[in-house]
Amino acid sequence: MWFFGSKGASGFSSRSTAEEVTHGVDGTGLTAIVTGASSGIGVETARVLALRGVHVVMAVRNTGSGAKVKEDIVKQVPGAKLDVMELDLSSMESVRKFATDYKSAGLPLNLLINNAGIMACPFILSKDNIELQFATNHLGHFLLTKLLLDTMKNTSRESKREGRIVNLSSEAHRYSYPEGVRFDKINDKSSYSSIRAYGQSKLCNLLHANELAKQLKEDGVNITANSIHPGAIMTNLGRYFNTYLAGAVGAVAKYVLKSVPQGAATTCYVALHPQVSGVTGEYFLDSNIGKALPLAKDLELAKKVWDFSTKLTDSQSGETSS
Asked: Matching Pfam families, A to Z (predicted)?
């Protein structure tokens, strides 16, 4: 681990912005999906990818907000190629509809940025009766990736360009429940901890990317899968802390927290930078390879999460597939 603001092996640091880490990179001809692209670092990720010539599909829950963000980006980046599509990751039906619509549009897919997420909410069940953080942060992205993987494989084959899948995890993966993933207690309200449930979902993002990287490598497919920690972002404070705490932390915020352009940097670096070519199954923070919890590298646990997630998503397919 390096000091906050000091450069790592990549030449970038926690202070680097998304524009800085993609400077000189040409993304023309690439198509990306960015989930949660209408707020926070999702907006900046979409903007910077579009700035570099990538055709960005903004997958958002609220298409009205998405359309406004698109309008703002086009004003800043004339000629930006952006589309807005509806996606509610907490609903498997919505994920399936999005994937069907995307395939019907005949679009290629080079980059899948699994960015959207919710954090530390009270105990709530999703439309599919699954704890909301697990459903939104992990399961929705797991299903989305699964449904779009063939499209990515075809694009990679036809374009002869490496496909990249980026899962937004978090250092919070270190603060999951003691057993890591509570397979038999996902919906246990009595022992629910909003912070640990968030950590669990972020650990699953890591395990998902690692198992995916392993499978893609074994299949000889030119697609990488990595996880990233964006950093603690200034804009998230108000949402997750009470007023007193936000004020106290705000006083030192500029020294320890990232701005939105800095928060989107690692995503954009891993999605576009040539330095990351061929790198797969890694965990990045501050636009450098970082060290995840040993549990996140547990191959057996990764496979167990994969099988568990497959079972959960398959069990819903009968009632939601067309």
From this structure: adh_short (PF00106)
The residues carrying an active-site annotation are 192
Q: pTM to 2 decimals?
A: 0.93
Report pLDDT digits (tens) over 7-18: 999 999 999 999
Residues 300-320: tens digit of each pLDDT: 999 999 999 999 999 876 443
Residue 284 main-chain phi, psi, to 5 deg: -110, 145
Q: What b/e sequence results for 11-47 when a residue is b if at least 16 CB atoms lie within 10 Å of its CB, and e otherwise? A: ebbbebbbbbbbeebebeebbbbbbbbbbbbbbbbbb
| Residues 6 or more apart whose Cβ sits within 8 Å of residue 11 | none
